[in-house]
Amino acid sequence: MSTPTQATDNRSSAVAVRYDTQESAPRVVAKGYGTIAEAIIRTAKENGLYVHESPELVNLLMQVNLDAQIPPQLYVAIAELLAWIYSLEEKTGEVMAAAAAAEKKSATE
Asked: Can you give the pTM of this predicted structure?
């Protein structure tokens, strides 16, 4: 998950967060401004990861050290974002399953 925004000096900024169910909290795995932010966003999109724009959340996450778990104060915000991503993935999976079933049906007719 990557969350882009504009920094106060008009440079874009981005933070990538990873959640491993084996850990107690999501972790900031990449963050940066300008060309680094653009690379984070591009890499996320190239790998099929969701990019969510939330300037307020990015500003808060930029304060978290790289490779550190997010602080408890951000748990609710990140949990809501993860829930949204999981719902998108579920809907995408349902659409893909329906498309595959329709393709299979038309191939047998």
From this structure: 0.71
Per-residue HEC secondary structure of 69-93 comes to ECCHHHHHHHHHHHHHHHHHHHHHH
Query: Where do the H-state alpha helices sit in the chain?
Result: 35-46, 55-61, 75-108
The DSSP code for 51 is: B
**pLDDT for 7:** 45
Residue closest to 14 by CA, chosen among 49, 46, 62 = 62
Higher pLDDT among residues 6 and 32, named by residue: 32
Distances (CA, A) of 85 to 41, 91, 100: 16, 10, 22
DSSP classification of residue 17? E
Output the six-digit token pair for 104: 């299979």
**Whole-number Cα distances in Å, 7 to 25, 35, 56, 59, 90:** 26, 13, 11, 8, 33
